[in-house]
Amino acid sequence: MLALLGALCGLLSGLLMAFFYAAIYLPARYIIGTDFDTFESLPVEWRVGLSLLACIVLALVFTLLPSRLHKVGVPYVVERLNYHNGNLPLWNGVVQFFTAAIGLIGGLSIGKEGPAVHLGATLGSYLAEKAKLPQYGVETLLACGVAGAISAIFQTPLAGVLFAFEVIFLEYRQRYVLPVLLSSVVATLVSHYLIGPLDIFSIGDLSLVVLSKDLFFACFALVVLIVLLSALFLHMQKALWRLSGLSIWVRFMSVAIATSLAAVYLPEALGSGYSSLTHLLSGDVILYSLFLLIVVKTALTAFTIGLGIPGGMIGPTFIIGGLAGVQVALIFDNDFADVALFALLGMAAMMAACFQAPLTALVAIIEMTHSSEAIIPALFVVVLACLLMRVFFHQESVFVERLSYIGMSSTISPFQRYLRHHTVKPVSEDIVLLPVRVPLEQVKNLASSMVDYIAFESDDEWHLVHRISVLDALQTLDLGPQLWLVLIDDIAVMDLSLALDSNVVPLIDEPSSLESMWHWFQKTDSVEVLVALSDSSFRRVSRHRLNQFLLKSD
């Protein structure tokens, strides 16, 4: 069933991403006349006007919306996964869709990939809720939504799967792999059919990579540059998070001013930045310092995201890394093919350093460029960039750092994970469900039953008794007539409410996981409960049985 739901999630993710892509592309196509990222082709008054209008509209939207709808993006997805059982409100996803589209159309230095992750995760969470899946099913479909969204927006199916595990779950989960892979492939096919092939970068001239000392020396120089840029990107955001108490208008107008200055003096820094890198890889000559563009793009993206603009940072960091790679290639006076190679290496290193997702970065550049020539040097720069960020700057993923700043953990404990991956069925016991008045012949048949507990309803309350207690009460007939003996239509019946001292127990719907069951016992201080399962049956769950399950040794 999860595989089918994963495929459905991939189908819907592909459709949603195609719609999201159209919501950004079509208005920008009408305004700019070419690709939505080539803002430098617009007159300066248009560039400034679009950025100002986008920030004003976003500030107005967030002023009118309740504060609970302000939370969007990848950190919010991780927060809901760890603290709210993966339940993502639908309206937050709607806000993410339109606000990200407004920012991208306005030329703000953000990406569409982060919002895509939020939208895909919301879709997966919604499907899991409608299917009434247990907790591990919710997490599986959430991973399917994330992988499907990344796969559709980049058309990189394997990178989408790895992104879900490395960035969202921060671990690889084998039991989720098949549904997530299926979702990712289906989403890619849908995106390819509706949008067409996304040949974002043309690296057809990449020659055979010759491993040499000069190559690895240049790679080391690239890693140093990438680590410094990543540190600037992360530390600038962390400094800006302290300003979250300022009003939305102050923060968003500050972004509008910074973006307007870039629109006047360095328009290539606007938007995601794909066009700048594409032009460089096509051999176009730039008329200004490439290093200046790299620094401005890094600072502008960090400034925009750090002050709360609801956009993504995955795409811009990819581009910043690619531009840094081109800069290093030009410094070392390499030919055009090596410029393309170093652009790839820079993209991989920057993504790995910022998000601590080495495999995702490596596979993404291979899938996006349809080339495997850069694997060995890419592994070198990816691993080294991740290590230097951890050792010298003590930095985790920017998403992890964001959650830590607001006092939340990006992971859950092994104990919580173990509970979430199990339903209540392993700790539940079968019961015999009887009416409050039972014919004596049916009571006698309990002697051959293998079920230990009996439940009945009386006065709108549920009672639970041991089977042996019912049989013992039946034996009292040998002592003479009993108060619990009733004749109904000349049939002798036992009134269980009179015959037994039973325990009144609550009746609850089946929890999504053992974690929910554990929290229920902790909150109510009960020792046992009747659980109505999804198949309309009833079972007994006791605190003692749950403790035994948790303490047992495999």
From TrEMBL:
Subcellular location(s) per record = Membrane
Keywords linked to the UniProt accession: Chloride, Chloride channel, Ion channel, Ion transport, Membrane, Transmembrane, Transmembrane helix, Transport
- Membrane topology recorded in Swiss-Prot or TrEMBL: Multi-pass membrane protein
What Pfam families does the entry give? Voltage_CLC
The keyword Transmembrane is annotated on this UniProt entry: yes
What the entry lists under InterPro entries is as follows: Cl-channel_core, ClC, ClC-type_chloride_channel
Q: What parts of the sequence cross the membrane?
A: 46-67, 88-110, 140-164, 176-195, 215-234, 246-266, 286-307, 314-333, 339-362, 374-393
What is the protein name for this chain?
Answer: Chloride channel protein
